[in-house]
């Protein structure tokens, strides 16, 4: 039985390597042959670029709030709160409530980088092969699978604490209180921590995907020789 399992592993490894070599054989002759380690390092570099260039932007003041692609709006059940406040001249209060949500997300994303670095470091050659041969968001999907649960657990308490630190708890208490005082409205009391945690996660992966798609489709975004050589394999896979 052990011999059968060993034979299966050897065969699978051989097929995986052969598949990548088939792609490598389509490259121009002067490109040189890439090793498994170089392919893995190139994909890790691409992911690290996404983390360093895009995720880091989200940790700065207005990283979420001024970025329309990831800006956190009021949850659907609170859109009526926003509309109700604006109708009675309290638009500034609604704006402050939205800003507070985004400030909490900006604060939480600072916790993401070490988790991402660990996931990238642990990438196997099989992971790298699947990413290279996958769709334009394959590397981002790898990070989502490997880190989402851990990131949620890390973000959630930070966001809860951040609501207090940036004054969001007071802003939202005031906002909800004022809305609930409007005659004939149904009172609301949403779980904003869970909502902002999930929206922050969505924003993080959206920004990483942006960089990945750029590297896959724009030759000028491949800013190192290794990136150019590795993603040339992707260019020739079809």
Question: Could you explain the architecture of this structure?
Answer:
The two termini are 38 Å apart. 33% of the residues are buried. The longest helix has 28 residues, at 138-165. Helix 4 (91-108) runs antiparallel to helix 8 (168-180). The protein has helices at 2-24, 36-58, 79-87, 91-108, 112-121, 125-132, 138-165, 168-180, 192-217, 225-235. It contains ten helices and no strands. By secondary structure, it is mainly α. 71% of the residues lie in helices and 0% in strands.
Short description:
71% of the residues lie in helices and 0% in strands. The protein is mainly α. The protein is elongated and about 70 Å long.
From the structure above, extract its key features.
disordered N terminus, 71% helix, elongated, 238 residues, mainly alpha
Helical fraction: over 70%
Spans of 5+ residues with little confidence (pLDDT < 50)? 1-21, 23-31
Distance between the termini: 38 Å
Query: What is the radius of gyration computed over CA atoms, rounded to a whole number of angstroms?
Result: 23 Å
Number of strands: 0
Class from helix and strand fractions: mainly alpha
What summary fits the major beta sheet? none
Strand content: under 5%
Shape: elongated
The averaged pLDDT comes out at 80
In quaternary terms, these chains amount to: single chain
Write the layout of secondary structure elements.
Blueprint: H1 2-24, H2 36-58, H3 79-87, H4 91-108, H5 112-121, H6 125-132, H7 138-165, H8 168-180, H9 192-217, H10 225-235
Helix pairs in contact: 2-5, 2-6, 2-9, 2-10, 3-4, 4-7, 4-8, 4-9, 5-7, 7-9
């Amino acid at each position: 039985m052990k011999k059968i399992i060993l034979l299966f592993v050897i065969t699978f490894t051989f097929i995986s390597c052969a598949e990548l070599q088939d792609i490598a054989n389509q490259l121009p002759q002067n490109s040189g042959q890439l090793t498994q380690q170089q392919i893995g390092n190139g994909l890790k570099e691409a992911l690290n670029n996404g983390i360093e260039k895009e995720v880091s932007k989200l940790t700065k003041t207005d990283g979420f709030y001024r970025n329309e692609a990831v800006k956190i709006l009021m949850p659907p059940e609170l859109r009526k709160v926003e509309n109700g406040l604006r109708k009675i001249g309290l638009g500034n209060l609604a704006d402050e409530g939205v800003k507070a949500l985004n400030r909490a997300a900006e604060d939480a994303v600072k916790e993401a980088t070490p988790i991402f670095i660990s996931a990238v470091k642990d990438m196997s050659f099989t992971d790298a092969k699947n990413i290279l041969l996958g769709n334009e968001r394959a590397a981002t999907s790898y990070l989502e699978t490997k880190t989402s649960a851990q990131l949620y657990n890390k973000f959630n308490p930070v966001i809860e604490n951040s609501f207090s630190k940036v004054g969001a708890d007071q802003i939202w208490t005031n906002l909800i209180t004022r809305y609930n005082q409007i005659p004939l409205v149904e009172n609301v009391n949403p779980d904003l921590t869970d909502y902002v945690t999930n929206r922050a996660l969505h924003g993080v992966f959206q920004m990483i995907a942006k960089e990945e798609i750029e590297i896959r489709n724009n030759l000028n975004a491949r800013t190192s020789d290794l990136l150019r050589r590795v993603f040339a394999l992707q260019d020739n896979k079809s």
